[in-house]
Amino acid sequence: MRILIAAAGSRGDVAPYTGLGAELRRAGHEVALAAPDAFAGLVTEAGLEFRSLPARAEGGAATRRELMRTAAEFITELGRGFAEAVDPGTDLLMLSTTTAPLGWHVSEATGIPALGAHLVPAAPTGDFPPVVTGARSLGRLGNRTAGRFALRMADRLYTPAVTRLRHDLGLPPVTPHAMRRRQERADRPVLHGFSATLVPRPSDWRPGLEVTGTWWPYVDESRRLPAELEDFLAAGPRPVFVGFGSMAGGEGERLSDIAVRALRRAGLRGILQTGAAGLAADGDDVLTVGDVPHALLFPRVAAVVHHAGAGTAAAGLRAGVPAVPVPVTTDQPFWAGRLAALGAATDPIPFRSLTAEALADALGRVLRQQTYSRAAMTAAQLMAAEDGAGEAVKAVERLTG
């Protein structure tokens, strides 16, 4: 079967599909992954065919209205790019949360079956509020109502893109809301690539919504940590990892200063991952690294300080390492709250409230109180029994067989 996976966004929105795609390829399928050009190397390293999708321009929007306008313009471009990336010989489209509201229309126009492949729980539920609104529960009725409202807001954002896309594809007008309702009434399948240890499948979800387990980014079996990093790890006690992934652009100097002062205040060694923020520091007790697979590094550290992106949060938990989450935006407060609820992390420190004193205090607690490590190890044992990509392959073959 020829499968096209479409994913757009930051590295965390794309990398998990390299692991899923590699597992599909091992099962005998031909797999292409459409994503922004910046991730071409990740895709080809996993042995997948790369196809280009438009990338969203960084910055430039000063007000909420301007932000919404630029987002709508990008989604319109994404729709065009998606349609161009589809090969007529494709047998199945697998759609991320971002590409699904466009992909259903491409599926209708081409006759190619489509399957949701999401990294976050977007369907409304009484169990928790929408992931984009944070971690605070509004009660079961309030959570469901907020979830439906969040979907309607997304529908509005996608309306210009869907209108243009359907026109270009020669389809009659249909709103994003009407298409989404059509998918829901048909119980169209959506696979979710996160761990039930972090988010158990809600009991009030409709049929067709499955939680398979985490889809881990592809890491070649021969990949090793850089020699300089190995030397640093061997030179003393386990260090603390500090990184903010693709978040906090332009905040590198402030965050680096906070991280180093906090580590030294707590008497700890540290590894700073540069990321989009540009973290950097020098010293015998701190090392700056670039792109290093979390799967290789996290089992070697004492704790992780991160932005609580879905992938990074799961990677720390998989390694059995306690966390200090510092969420920045969107779904990150949700994942930070899930880690804290498991007992594997301190209460989140809001990004704008981060200080060296607060971080040092949180690190002291997370490393001094063994309850955090025990909770992280318990979660890691549960996650080790999951095979997210393998379960997704089984579901794909079951649903398309």
Describe the structure.
By secondary structure, the protein is an alpha/beta fold. The protein folds into two domains: 2-214 and 386-400, 3-Layer(aba) Sandwich (Rossmann fold); 227-384, Rossmann fold, CATH 3.40.50. It has helices at 11-14, 16-26, 40-45, 64-85, 100-110, 139-168, 176-185, 227-234, 252-266, 294-297, 310-318, 332-342, 356-368, 370-384, 388-400, and strands spanning 2-6, 30-36, 49-53, 92-95, 114-118, 190-192, 209-211, 240-243, 270-273, 286-289, 303-306, 323-325. The protein has a seven-stranded parallel β-sheet with strand order 3-2-1-4-5-6-7, with helices on both faces. Helix 3 (40-45) links the parallel strand 2 (30-36) and strand 3. The protein is globular and about 65 Å long. The N and C termini lie close together (10 Å).
N-to-C series of helices and strands? EHHEHEHEHEHHEEHEHEEHEHEHHHH
Strand arrangement within the widest β-sheet reads 3-2-1-4-5-6-7
Give the domain tally. Answer: 2
Q: Give helix % range.
A: 40-55%
Helix/strand-derived category reads alpha/beta
Give the C-level CATH assignment of the largest domain. Alpha Beta
How much beta, percentage-wise?
A: 5-15%
CATH architecture of the largest domain: 3-Layer(aba) Sandwich
